[in-house]
Specification:
Number of helices: 7
Number of strands: 43
Strand content: over 45%
CATH topology: Maltoporin, Chain A
Shape: globular
Low-confidence stretches: 1-45
CATH superfamily: TonB-dependent receptor, beta-barrel domain
Number of domains: 1
Structural class: mainly beta
Largest sheet: 22 strands, antiparallel, barrel
Oligomer: single chain
């Protein structure tokens, strides 16, 4: 750890005139006061209601956007990933599951829980999969698309902050049950699962027998798929809350699972339009489970001091069984590939917060966190079979193999903010720090055969690969025979030390200017042992000074104008820096130690109007300028499916416009029709570096771009969400909501083509959901129809003279029903 760099960050803490935003408070209520002839009337509204979230947005100095539990419940949204896509300018890539905000994907975004960063559950990505966070335990989700110094400087698109529920009001206990069915899955009948997978609840782990594989058959599970019984999705959850004097307690526990079958195709083509891989028939069965527990305990010492403890445990599993049929150029034949994969993730997030009002004008906020992540792929398998002769193919350990990995991540983090309010100036100082220790281990066990492998039934591989035939196999783990099952690995130790300053200047009753800066010191120490990259290490140090400016001008009581400027950066991720290979069926991806950080410059201009409580009309213009952008792409090699990460462009920009409209259309008696609509239009361009520049920066690797300029990866030309709802309330406690939701995700660049191979584009798609919710005092009933249009999630490869399908599948329509009872 570089203490000289730490001292630079700490020096900012003593800077005069410094101010930082305080953390987002975790109290459940927002107080509003109105003075009438000396009488103060106080009201309290829950944080997650639409009207309260819009009111907070109206008063905030910086640009914020929040999606609350009330809106999500009306739309039948059950997880944070889907919730984020309901915000303006966001989309989810079905090619890889990443969240894109204003056209910028995983590497440009951040994820926090109650303001503290949380680790990714997949070494391929920077952010954790938001689908494992259930909206039932969320107060609201905040999407910060404009930078301010409280956010980590590794920022380009947005920071997604999930604010967990706290109890307020009367004691309650609620039990919920739900079930749904995917019609496409149900029609398939024989839904497949891998033998020895995580099981129904997702906790079972497979392993292999270490020792001499030529004496003891190493595998403990079968190679054959098995059929799942009754593929109906289920959901069960419990929640409750109560006050105990100065204590308040909220607890949530739940389990849900889902089955999804899809049939489609994948391909990759040379510049001359000949196929490198053309799988024209793919069947995929995907089973997921999620077990979640949350406890929030708040202790209010007095009106000026509050302590909050949050503990969140999430266990998720994913099991997929795929069958690929088609042509592979390297093998020069049609093949059948069976690929079974499963992943188990355990995440335990522990947080301690304190808020203290000292005297009338001083406020101190602090937080400590300890996150433990364990993610495994225990027993991925693959078989490759000649489609004509039905022989298992030998010659490469990758053709028939098992793969095991284990990711361990521990992070200690925290922050401390101190603010002072003067007459027309608010002054504060802040410090952020975190230390991460990550280790990733992986073992590949490849099989080759003595002699010629016999013909096999693709559905019955176990007839040949089994303990009785162990003498017919040779095992390849890429380790010497003396330590054949020792894992390869990489380790990452990362330290972040930050000083933050900020100041809010109230220049008039209408104009507030917020000026601030952040200094980030990031140190990364990386080591690896890999069969291709051998043994190596790398130290990366980044020093970043990040100024920002936010201004709000209140035109009147119902209108605001906002202006924002900032500088941020984007770090290469550890997995991208480490030169190990990840082999998928269609592509192979390698890390690149020569990557370096890119710089981002951000601009926003916004007008917003609040016609009445719960209503909003806004229009925004934004721009982003990126230097030395990082992207994954093909490079010059013998195999066009080989990919790596590069600083590909000298510069790039995104220009966009956003509009949002939330309004009650018509009201009568106890009924109303309402709508919330948002839309984003974007245009992007980047200038690629020359072939010689790329080679000089990347140890001789060469990229031959097809053009000098192109779009930026992930930037859709148009994104929109349109919702229309009907609300009816009677007897003060009974409500009915019917919401029809429509989403449009426009065409966008998925991956950059090189060496004459065309670009890859995600094709535009339209999604329609319907949700009906009925609440009768203590009983609630929900009926949903999701993915009503069942669009094709398609990625096309656009070569010069012909367009090919890279990926194409449908997810299926889903019908569901749920019920809860509240005591």
């Amino acid at each position: 750890m570089n203490f000289r760099k730490i001292s630079i960050a700490v020096m900012l803490l003593t800077s005069t005139g410094a101010v930082i935003y305080a953390q987002e408070k975790k109290s459940d209520t927002t107080k509003s006061e109105k003075e009438i002839e000396g009488v103060i009337i106080k009201g309290s509204t829950k944080k997650g209601t639409e009207s309260n979230l819009i009111q907070i947005q109206k008063k905030s100095v910086e640009v914020i956007e929040r999606v609350g539990y009330a809106q999500l419940a009306k739309q039948g949204v059950s997880d944070a990933a889907t919730a984020v896509t309901k915000a303006t300018g966001t989309q989810k890539s079905e090619g890889n599951g990443q969240i894109f905000v204003r056209g910028l994907g995983d590497r440009y975004n951040g994820t926090t829980l109650n303001g503290l960063p949380i680790p990714s559950d997949d070494p391929e990505y920077k952010n954790i999969g938001l689908g494992i966070f259930k909206t039932s335990m969320v107060e609201y989700i905040s999407l910060d698309k404009v930078y301010n110094p409280k956010i980590l400087g590794d920022f380009g698109g947005a920071n997604v902050n999930i604010v967990s529920r706290e109890h307020s009001g009367k004691p309650h206990f609620k039990i919920g049950l739900g079930s749904s069915i995917n019609l496409q899955t149900f029609e398939k009948k024989d839904f497949k699962l891998q033998d020895g997978g995580p099981g129904f609840f997702g906790f079972r782990e497979s392993t292999f027998i270490k020792g001499n594989p030529y004496q003891t058959y190493p595998f403990t599970t079968k190679w054959n798929y098995k059929n799942a019984q009754n593929p109906f999705n289920t959901d069960f959850n419990l929640e409750g809350g109560a006050n105990f004097g100065k204590f308040s307690l909220f607890a949530y526990g739940g389990f849900e699972n889902s089955y999804e079958f899809s049939k489609g195709q994948e391909g990759l083509y040379f510049a001359n339009n000949n196929p490198d891989k053309n799988y024209n028939n793919i069947e995929r069965s995907l089973y997921k489970s999620n077990t979640t527990g949350l406890v929030n305990l708040a202790y209010k010492l007095d009106t000026n001091n509050k302590i909050t403890i949050t503990s969140n445990y999430i266990h998720s599993s994913s099991q997929s069984a795929k069958i690929y049929q088609g042509y592979v150029n390297d093998l020069d034949r049609n093949v059948i590939i069976k690929r079974g994969d499963n992943k188990i993730t355990d995440l335990w997030i522990n947080q301690l917060f304190g808020t203290h009002k000292v005297a009338a004008t001083w406020v101190a906020d602090w937080a400590l966190g300890y996150n433990i992540l364990r993610s495994k792929r225990p027993d991925r398998l693959q078989n490759t079979i000649d489609a004509e002769n039905l022989n298992l193919l030998a010659g490469s350990a990758i053709n028939n193999h098992r793969y095991f990995d284990d990711l361990k991540d521990e992070t200690v983090l925290g922050h401390a903010y101190l603010s002072k309010t003067f007459d027309r100036v608010k002054i504060a100082i802040g410090y952020d720090g975190q230390y991460k220790d990550r280790r990733f281990e992986y073992t590949t066990i490849g099989l080759n055969f003595v002699g010629v492998a016999p013909k096999v039934d693709p559905a019955n591989i176990d007839v040949f690969i089994n303990p009785a035939n162990n003498t017919l196999f040779t095992y390849q783990t890429f380790q010497p025979s003396t330590k054949i099952f020792d894992p390869f690995y990489y380790t990452v130790k990362q330290s972040l030390q930050s000083g933050l300053v900020n100041a809010d200047f109230t220049l008039s009753d209408q104009l507030i200017i917020q000026a601030g800066a952040r200094f980030d010191y990031v140190g990364m120490l990386i080591n690896w042992v890999d069969p291709i990259a051998d043994k190596g290490g790398k130290t990366k140090v980044y020093n970043k000074f990040l100024p920002s400016l936010n201004a709000k001008y209140s035109v009147d009581d119902k209108q605001n104008l906002r202006l924002s400027f900032s500088k941020t950066y984007t770090l290469p991720q550890a997995k991208e820096l480490i030169p190990i290979a990840y082999y998928d069926v269609t592509t192979n991806t390698y890390g690149n130690p020569d990557l370096y950080a890119s710089d981002n410059y951000n601009f926003d201009l916004k007008w917003e109007m609040f016609p009445k409580s719960g209503e909003l009309i806004s229009v925004s213009a934004f721009g982003k300028y990126i230097q030395n952008a990082i992207a994954r792409t093909n490079y010059a090699s013998a195999t066009p499916s080989d990919m790596s990460y590069f600083n590909i462009s000298n510069w790039g920009y995104i220009l966009g416009a956003e509009a949002e409209f939330r309004k009650d259309i018509y009201s009568w008696n106890r009924s109303k029709i309402y709508t919330f609509i948002n839309a984003t239009y974007m245009h992007s361009e980047q200038e690629y570096k020359s072939e010689d520049e790329i080679s000089a920066e990347n140890s001789g690797k060469r990229i031959v771009f097809n053009t000098g300029k192109d779009d930026i990866q992930g930037v859709s030309d148009f994104i929109a969400n349109a919702n229309i709802g009907y609300h009816y309330k009677w007897k003060d406690v009974n409500t009915l909501d019917l919401v029809v939701s429509y989403s449009r995700v426009g065409k966008n660049l998925y991956s950059i083509g090189t060496t004459g191979i065309g670009n890859f584009y995600e094709v535009a798609r339209d999604i329609v959901d319907l949700n009906l919710s009925l609440t009768l005092d203590k009983i609630g009933i929900g009926i949903s129809a999701k993915n009503f249009l069942n669009p094709h999630f398609k990625i096309e490869q656009e070569n010069t003279t012909q367009t090919f399908i890279h990926k194409d599948y449908t997810k299926g329509r889903q019908l569901g029903i749920s019920i809860f009872y509240k005591f």
